[in-house]
Amino acid sequence: MIKKYLGFPLSEELTQRVLEVIQDVQTSNNKRQHALRLFQVINDLSDVGLDYYFIQSLKRAGLGKIKMIAIENAIKMNKKAILTIGKGIIKAMNDDQLLIIANIIEESFTVNATIEA
After folding, report:
1. Residue 115 above 60 pLDDT?
2. 17 in Cβ contact with 102 (< 8 Å)
């Protein structure tokens, strides 16, 4: 079965950080030492994707300023809860689980790079 993927543009700095973390997780004997860095790049990728697909879409659709403020505040409140829970979950994962996450992110990079080429 062919899977479809959505992609969004990344800065060079974020791309480099993500690839470094993936490599560190994949090659390290102690993958857990990279858990917080992995969590941070997942968070940063989520921010970029959310902005690209959701926030910018609403702005382009002409959503009013008051509604945009309400959306942005709701995102900030929910993100605090997600960050608190997510950080704890990632820190508690074992090496195999962290490697799976790094590999999934790497696969996404590979697929997106292939599509653009």
Report:
1. no
2. no
